[in-house]
Amino acid sequence: MVLLVLTGKPCRGLGEAPVAAVQPFNNYVGGVEARLARQHGSAAGFLAPVAGAEVEKRLRRGELIVEKLTPAKGADLPGAMLHHWRGTAFAAGAKASDFERLMRDFGAYPQRFSPQVVQARVISQQGDRIYAVMRVRQKHVITVVMDTTYDICFGRLDARHGYSIARSTQVSEIDSPGTGGERALSAKQEHGFLWRLNTYWSYEERDGGVTMQIESVSLTRSIPTGLDGRLGRLWRAFRESRWSLLCSPFAMRCGDKA
Question: Which residue of 7, 12, 59, 139 has the fewest CB atoms within a 10 Å radius of its CB?
């Protein structure tokens, strides 16, 4: 088993996305955030609609609905790939205040969302703005553990409608995690499984429960030229992984608290 870790510790020489890819990524994120700001300005249309009565039934049965929103054109950036996913879930009997309380309780993430979440802690907080570090384990034959530093803002329209915006501010890859030899890999050594990750939660209390949505926009390295077969499929699994779609465990825990 290979273990890779992305850490939130500031460090010179950490892997970084190509400069030519960062601005297009930021432009795309700007469009996503502008659209979400319009959604969050009114109770009508606060959440992105799900398609059809059958999908609504699946939500009520407790299923997590996942949509790939990555654009057909414009996702291939210089040396990088952009990925955009959305997950929607419903927690029967829960309230919006339950969900917000769960989101803000970072210290309890490792217990509530194990084994995916390994560590989580708040660095600083000013009102509804929080800086936090979270270590998340992702497994696709090999295991990747991410420690990403987030700048998080919480907001609400009213008692039944709320949202959060989390932007990664630091991502790195660590060799030999948890040992005396733990070190940050250089830009030439790191694998580029994740360079940027923004997550956007929206939640609405209605119909006897809470409907919650998360959108995940990430930036990763392109699949290296000549990498095919099993290695290519493995790289693609990481590259296209829906990193932060924690809707399902959040929904289950939120329902448990109701």
Answer: 12
Q: Which residue has the tokens 């949509």?
A: 67
Note whether 112 and 253 are within 8 A (CB).
yes
Give the Cα separation of 154 and 171 in Å (integer).
22
Contacts of 211 (CB under 8 A, 6+ apart): 47, 59, 88, 89, 90, 203, 204
Residues forming a β-bridge with 67: 86
Cis peptide before 115 (omega within 30 of 0): yes
Report the domain count for the chain.
1
pTM, two decimals, is 0.83
Query: For residue 239, what is the domain's CATH number?
Result: 3.30.530.20
Sign of CA dihedral 93, 96, 99, 101: negative
Domain with 117 in it: 3-257
- Single-letter amino acid, residue 9: K
